[in-house]
Amino acid sequence: MSFDHLQYPIKTLPNGDRLNLNAYRLTGSAPGPHVYIQASVHGAEVQGNGVVYHLLDFFSKNEFRGSLTIIPTANPMSINTKAGTFTQGRFNATSGNNWNRNYQNLEEYPEIFSPKAWLESLNLAEETKGSIRKKFKHYLGESLKKLRAQKSEYAISDDVKLNLTLQHLASSADIVLDLHTGPKACRYLYAGEFEKEKVVDLPFPFTIIIPNEFAGAMDEATFMPWVILSRNLKAMNLENLDAKSFEAYTVELGSEESLNMNEALRDAERILSFLSKRGVLANDFHPTSSFEPQRAGFLKDYKTYFAPIGGLYEFTLKPGDHALKGQGLCKFLNFAPLEGAKELGGILEQCLGEIKLLEEAHIINHSPSAVVSEGQALYQVLEKTWSLK
Ligand SMILES: [Zn+2]
Predict the structure, then answer these.
(1) Domain that holds residue 208
(2) Within this chain, do residues 16 and 119 fall inside the same structural domain, yes or no?
(3) 89 phi/psi in degrees, rounded to 5
């Protein structure tokens, strides 16, 4: 195994100091897939860094095929920005942008990236699945380089620079895992519709199936070029050249602002079990115990309950719970009914309320704070799920 540390300058600060991205490249003893794993693009979502530690430990001691690019703390701006005791994680404190929504949609730049024109430029009679794959990765990398040059003419925002740098580093991958967490959450995945048959190999208890569309996130930014390549090969009756083996997932590892190294070991086992099925591990992998059942649902059935009233909330149902229609979801306390009151009798109890589940659902996450304004997200739940395994 060979190991390299690579560093990419990501931002100069007004005092002249510099923030860098630190990437680790591991190369195995035999050819195999290239796996790209990043953690903490949302700076408060730190559990993935513990997982990365255990993966590095595993690969330092076990033979593997192919190579890995691993980037812990993949957003130095975000993880280093504290607001009181909390980490300013999900949004750029300056621009307000979500750090996982500034990846670039190459499809919007047909003069730079056109899989159809690219395919037509090849001598297709001489190509194989393997050669198309290798050349397409190169084309993808070159397209992202050109896009960056174009976008840098008037300099580039820090949001786009970070996301484009990560997107470029992932362009040579066959498998992309973007490690996040929810606010207060269980473990779950986002998987593209095109990979919904494959996601069963990545043993997390819940999967949300998202459309094959670009909406700004890393998984979509990395899988859409391959989806588009597939569509073009199909339109040209060249499905025999379609390797269909690219996969990208957003992996949600519990709650933000929290690190648990024992749970990270279990999370690493889930990922190693998956990589074993993709031929990365040289030997059989045996997790310490079997994984829990897996369920999936569509993004359209991933429902957000917003707070109908501002107040202080007690979250009755917990992430991972399964609950039925009509069951109590959470309670709230709001003293507004006492305004102008001359007595408490018959009024005080109006300060308490309860929100009930509208449909049977699995609870995926809830607000990390009991203090919630009207209209803020309280809960996200997955309805109409089915069993994957
Ligand atoms: Zn996140």
Answers:
(1) 2-292
(2) yes
(3) -95, -55
